Amino acid sequence: MITTVTLNAAIDRTYYVSQFRAGEVHRVARQVDEPGGKGNNVAKVIRQLGGQVTATGIIAGASGTFIESSLAERGIQTAFVQAAGESRVCLNILDESSGSSTELLGQGPSITQIEAAGIKETLHRLALQSSVVVLSGSLPAGAADGLYAELVGIIRSAGARAFLDTSGAALSEGLPALPYFVKPNEQELAGWLGREPRGTSQWTQAAQMLADQGIVQVCVTLGSRGAIAILEGEGYLVTPPVIKSVNTVGCGDAFVAGMAYAEECGDSAVKRLRVAAAAAAANAMSDRAGDIDYTLFREYARQVNVQVL
Known about the structure:
The chain is an alpha/beta fold. It is built from 10 helices and 14 strands.
């Protein structure tokens, strides 16, 4: 089993407008609501790939009820910790004329030591039953920057492999706990480095710096250019299929889902990267974050190129 953790769960609401212009009134042509937050997106894709997955984290209010029930409808087990207040709504305004996306990320409830203790207890129980535990997304208000580091420690002590996908202080504080896998994107890695690498060789060196911290698997996602990975000490350049994206929100989460699913399946490094890149590409062809068409995924998996560096 794989467990996903979303400490800042959300309803991902997409508004489709014919042409978006800042400062003007728009009529929404179509609205889609999805259970969101990065870890929940990971859970949805793992389930679509055929994996068994349990989603945990923190939810609140009527929005939290929607998130939990919507995941359950997809065959995802849930074990959320309840907080006071209301889970956030993250709004994506999609301009159908240009394909551009404008995101407004709401703020969820502030957690207390009670919720933090609850998630630690729940995670320990689930980690004992899991091969992989995925920690994804931002920390909620009230959480200490080192909360992910504590959760990584709990996961490792239970014998599971900790996947960490976050940014900023949460990433910097989490790295010394030695998660098994990390997946910064370009901006997140540049923030950690304090500079922006240029070219494949510099991105590879930056990925190696993370691996040198003692992290077994490092994947740096580069958007439509693919990814650079250091897996078990070996470097790889991943080139995805050439596609015309419908919606790029959630592609990084789909990549993590592919890596987690392939890890549990015991796949080789090359196949893990193929599965991850194909899942990300399939997500880009859906108008929903954390959603793939399995037939399209299989076709893209044949098109992904993985080169040893």
